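[Q] Does anyone have a clean structure-token version of this?
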Amino acid sequence: MEQISILVLDDEHRLRDELEEFLSRKNFLVYKAADPSEAFEQLEKYKIDIAIVDIKLPQMSGLEVLQRIKENWPKTEVIMISGHGDMKSVIEAMRQGANDYFQKPFRLADIEHAIHRTERFISLSRQLLNYNKSISLLTKRLYEAAGAPMIGKSEVIKEIINSMEKVAESENTSVLVLGESGTGKELVAHGIHLLSGRKDALFHSVNCSAITDSLFESEFFGHKKGSFTGAVDDRSGWFEIAHGGTLFLDEIGDMPIGQQAKLLRALEERKVSRVGSHQKIAFDVRVIAASNQDLEKMATEKKFRSDLYHRLSTFVIQLPPLKERKEDIPLLVDHFLASLSSKLNKKVVMMSESAQEKLNSYDFPGNIRELRNILERAVILSEDGLISANDIPLSKSFIKNLGEPSSETFDLEELEKETIQKAMKQCKNNKSQAAKLLNISWQSLNRKIEKYNF
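[A] Here you go.
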């Protein structure tokens, strides 16, 4: 990482010199200012990464300086120096965008720790900036169409994006996306669609595990009015609806064998007949299927049609679990915290070192989806813009060095129950305050309390 530049703004001459000497020995580039006017001149003249600002200053308060810096030099991170018992000002500073703070009297080691915490934040921000500078057409389109970009700097993610770009050029090639639940299979499928010549047509997603035998033909092929009870009008099937675009078949491994035979025939003929009609309707779709199961093994064991497997697996993309691409977690955390802070209307400045270490020690059985859910809960429970380790309750079964994974499942209802209990405890059973903390209505909280019987 390039050398970090630091501006020390304090009206105490001795303190400025002491900090300059100490930080220069630590290989930081140090500038000094005795008052806000001098500090603003330094900010105009030099590229400052971190400004260390005392709350009590001549000319204007440190909070006003913080506000001016955030308005005019938004890339400069600010660490506040507070006097003893001045926590109200510290809390306000964190809300206004300060990255960290330390209290007087302090040790030089305290300064170093605060700078290193901020330095790590700057490093992650620069990585994200570099990533955004080289952002692919895929990521831009995904963010615009699906609200979620492909995020990662690992080699495996680069290879996956490269595969997506290549197969997108072949608009009729069937693609099979494999990976554990929560790894982003639908996002990959959507990305292939958006990179292809079919991008202006429909991307239609189907959950194959939810289709009953009685509805299969009607849903996929359509039906004519009066062809069965409840068919009150003509209806197009999914192949017709997705004509010219992409049909995404999620959880294809859960499709019953009988349905698989009908699907295969339609894919081979590229034509369907609506229920109640003999007329053939041609369709032009690219089919992308996805599964969290080993379809090749299932085909060998006669649990999945081998001919359908080979029809769907012309081009296979295998997604890794999150635990195998942990170098991508900081970028994912930054992205989710930014979007969740906006969504939940809560200012989150940073994650504590202990919270980050807790995430790093976790194996994420629910992958990216679980990471997002964990961070959403953390943002809800965080205070003063800081996410602490206590805001990140994890299943101990999947934390390294705490034993082998158990058969315990990731139960969203249980997680919701735990979150509500923690909020109620924090608010001393005040339902109105707890509802506000959880960002839900009082009535909704009351229904959930009745549901979980506590």
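[Q] Thanks! Anything notable?
[A] Residues 137-320 form a domain with the Rossmann fold fold (CATH 3.40.50.300).
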